[in-house]
Amino acid sequence: MNTSRKRDYTRGALAKASGVNLETIRFYEKINLMPNPPRTSNGYRCYSSDHLKRLTFIRRSRELGFSNNEVAGLLEMVDGTHDCDGVKHLALSNVDLIAHKIADLGKLKLALEGMAAECAGGETPDCAIIDKLLES
Amino acid sequence: MNTSRKRDYTRGALAKASGVNLETIRFYEKINLMPNPPRTSNGYRCYSSDHLKRLTFIRRSRELGFSNNEVAGLLEMVDGTHDCDGVKHLALSNVDLIAHKIADLGKLKLALEGMAAECAGGETPDCAIIDKLLES
DNA sequence: CTTGAGCCTGTAATTAATACAGGGTTTAGC
DNA sequence: GCTAAACCCTGTATTAATTACAGGCTCAAG
Hints:
- The structure is a homodimer.
- Chain A is mainly α.
- Chain A has helices at about 10-20, 20-30, 50-65, 70-80, 85-120, 130-135.
- In chain A, helix 5 (about 85-120) packs antiparallel against helix 6 (about 130-135).
- Chains A and B meet through helix 3, helix 4, helix 5 and helix 6 of A and helix 3, helix 5 and helix 6 of B.
- The first copy, chain A, binds a DNA duplex through helix 2.
């Protein structure tokens, strides 16, 4: 057994393991997303697998579009009794936001594709499509 | 007909008409997304409907997730200052960019929806979303 | 004529990082 | 045992994209 009993990480090791930038870890410490870790005798930060878990949670949440403030809220729920309704509501409101962005991007993509097609002639492009986007 | 013949806007009026913050207009001027407008005798900025059009385009593009730098590229296309080949290339590379963004957002949306679907809601002690974010 | 709204300028604060500068330590090679 | 690279520490500065504020002018209404 003894697959990984209380492995320690330096800041650099934690950065590699979590996929979070070295400096960003210190930043998260400053804004209290991450706790002040214990230090070794030489003053180096000494992280545990719990820290790795928490930091990975933060990274994933950020990648899903949660702001640092929202992540702080999620972490509070992780730490305490998590209020499932609150989490779900936050997730779904982000889904709405993303869906809207996707729809808008689709429209602009069509407009740009149309414009590119008109550019094929070799003359100065007619910006009718962009104009249309401007008017709407 | 004379629906709107060369209406002038103050900075405040332009802000209201475009939906862009008053201060942001000055900022766009500083980073050259917006031109230095003519001034009235008292030094006030004097905008036209062309400025409004351009600023609205910038706002929409920003809302669609383009960086200010990317918006600058889009505006070059709108201005038609480039030869057709350059314009077409820029347009198509932006289409790629948008397609990529759409794909990424689609993945995010699926991930969030999947997590939310597994979440029972209510005040149950376990939250599927948080569990997923905590997974090793 | 005197408020107050609106304009002007330059600078500071905000969010979410990232990048130094100028040090101290640790480890790997010779 | 010694040197040099690699890694850690701190604090501060920079980035992007705004937004806010301080300290003044000016214009329109009562």
